[in-house]
């Protein structure tokens, strides 16, 4: 869990640094968004597992965390769109 959070945080900082430096940051921003949303869903899912059946109860704060985390994969461009952006950058980098 901690590794996912730290990786996402570092990618976000790298993306912000690129933007502040006046460089194009679409590549790192897409990776950061995809990694952070995946980490949020994964960590929320683990929290639901810890709580067991109570994790799905609407009165549980863990259930709301899971719903909120899942929406991050959809808002501001789905994870599939972010992966497409990354793949295009990688493809362009290796064109002859």
TrEMBL record:
| Ranges annotated as spanning the membrane | none
Do you know which Pfam families this protein is assigned to?
Acyl-CoA_dh_1
Under the heading InterPro entries, the entry gives: Acyl-CoA_DH_CS (IPR006089), AcylCo_DH-like_C (IPR036250), AcylCo_DH/oxidase_C (IPR009075)
Tell me if Oxidoreductase is a UniProt keyword of this record: yes
Q: Name one GO molecular function term.
A: acyl-CoA dehydrogenase activity
Keyword field: FAD, Flavoprotein, Oxidoreductase
Superkingdom field: Eukaryota
Q: Which cofactor does it need?
A: FAD
Q: Where is the Acyl-CoA dehydrogenase/oxidase C-terminal domain?
A: 1-89
Task: Please tell me whether the keyword Nucleus is annotated for this protein.
Answer: no
Q: Which PANTHER family does this UniProt record tie to the protein?
A: ACYL-COA DEHYDROGENASE (PTHR43884), ISOVALERYL-COA DEHYDROGENASE, MITOCHONDRIAL-RELATED (PTHR43884:SF12)
Family the UniProt entry places it in: Belongs to the acyl-CoA dehydrogenase family.
The protein, known as: Acyl-dehydrogenase
The beginning of the lineage is: Eukaryota, Fungi, Dikarya, Basidiomycota, Ustilaginomycotina
